[in-house]
Structures are given as structure tokens and as C-alpha cells.
Amino acid sequence: MRLEALRRVQSDPRWSTPWAEKPLPTSDNLARLLPGGGLVPGSVYSLAGGGWLLLTLLADPSRAGLWCGVVGMPELGAEAAAQSGVNLERLALVPDPGGRWFSATAALAEVMALVAVRPASRVGDADAARLAAKLRDSKTALLTIGPWPRAEAAISVTAPRWSGLGEGHGYLRTREVLVTVTSKRTPLPRRVRMELP
């Protein structure tokens, strides 16, 4: 029954995602840091340091018409996602899959261009290898909150700077962060400061 339902979804033109071998759409600043010039289909990226980073990475692909899925993040709010530029019409949420987070992630990876997951338990090498094969076959990129075996790159956000507040008055206007990418392909970490809205 599950396989039949999956085939129905794959054949439905509303779910079709014509992504290719090239990297998924990503902001210019992040594309310069990432190996391959962006999120490469079939690869895994480990994220650390804030929900803003996740929403930023979901925004461009969803606005380009690609389907994105998020698994195991009940705190992710639709309003915050929309304000960060995520196209909610191209976003599927599985907020609390419990112990079935791995199978939920694998199912979404069969039909979506980009899937994000916060694993509910430690990921073993065998499970990571199984999912990696599925990601390569379906040309899906995976974002994980926290470490993941053999991830293509680790992306972190640190050193925030706020502006807008005066001596006890004013409004916060912007936040600047340092984004760092370390990968298997480049020996030295790459960094850029980015301003958040």
C-alpha cells in the first residue's frame, strides 16, 4: 500500500520536481562557500547554529518551485518560514514522526529535491549508507541538524552582531553572523559574514 501511494505521488504533476544534476538554488554568499557551488543533489550537509540557517537554505529552492520537506522539527513555524522567504506551497512538514523519523525522511527523499531532518536518535553508518544511496538515486539533497556520518560539508553559524539599539533605546534592525563551511573537498574552512533581516 505504501509503495502504491508513493507511486501515485511521483506520477502526480503537482509533485513533479524537474531538478537536474546542477546544485540547488542557493544565495550567492552560501554558494561561494559550499563545495560544488551549492547544495549538490545526492549529498548530505550537517547544520549547526540556528534555525535561520535552515530557513535560508530552504528558501531559494522552494521559491524556484522545488519541493522541500522538514522532518522532526515541531518548533519550525510556518510564519517564520514565510518571512524567511520559504514558499509554503512547496513545503511539506512532518513535525513529530517519533521513532519513525528515518522512514519519514527516506519517503520524502524519494519525491522531493531537498529534505531537512533532526534525527531523534544517533545515526549509524549502515543507516547513513542506505539513505545516501537513496539520495543519489532520487537526486535529493539532505540537511541534517547535528552531525551525520560522511556528510559532504558541515555548515555552522557563530559570532552574531546586532545593530540598531542605542543607549537603552531603539529597535533591533539587523543581525550579522559568521557562516563557516568545512568540507571533505577543501582542507581549510571557508567563512563569510552575512546579514540577516
Q: What share of the residues lie within helices?
A: 25-40%
Shape: globular
Strand order of the largest sheet: 3-2-4-5-1-6-7-8
Q: How many strands in all? A: 8
Q: What string, H for helix and E for strand, traces the elements in order?
A: HHEHEHEHEHEEEE
What is the secondary structure topology, with strand pairs?
Layout: H1 2-11, H2 28-33, E1 44-48, H3 51-63, E2 68-71, H4 78-83, E3 91-94, H5 101-109, E4 114-117, H6 125-138, E5 141-145, E6 153-165, E7 170-183, E8 190-196
Parallel strand pairs: 1-5, 1-6, 2-3, 2-4, 4-5
Antiparallel strand pairs: 6-7, 7-8
Structure description:
29% of the residues lie in helices and 28% in strands. The chain is of the alpha/beta class and 197 residues long. An eight-stranded mixed sheet has the order 3-2-4-5-1-6-7-8, with helices on both faces. Residues 13-18 have low confidence and may be disordered.
Give structural attributes.
197 residues, alpha/beta, eight-stranded mixed sheet, single chain
Short description:
With 197 residues, the protein is α/β, with parallel strands linked by helices. The protein has helices spanning 2-11, 28-33, 51-63, 78-83, 101-109, 125-138, and strands spanning 44-48, 68-71, 91-94, 114-117, 141-145, 153-165, 170-183, 190-196.
